[in-house]
Amino acid sequence: MAAVQNGFPENFLWGGATAANQLEGAFDQGGKGLSTADMIAFVPKDKRQGDHSMEISTERIARILAGETDDWFPKREGVDFYHRYKEDIALFAEMGFKVFRMSINWARIFPNGDDAMPNEQGLQFYDDVFDELLKYGIEPLVTLSHYETPLGLTQKYNGWASREVVGFYVKYAETVFTRYRSKVKYWLTFNEINVMLFSPYTGGGILTDQVENKLQTVFQGLHHQFVASALATKLGHEIIPGSRIGCMLARMESYANTCNPADVRKRQQEDQMNLFFTDVHARGKYPRYMDRYFAENNIVITREPGDDEILAANTVDFISFSYYMTLTVSAGPEGEATAGNLLGGIKNPYLKASDWGWQIDPVGLRITLNNLYDRYQKPLFIVENGLGAFDKVEADGAVHDHYRIDYLREHIKEMKEAVKDGVELMGYTAWGPIDLVSMSTSEMSKRYGFIYVDLDDTGSGTLNRSKKDSFEWYKQVISSNGEIL
Question: What is the annotated signal peptide range for this record (predicted)?
Answer without folding.
Answer: none
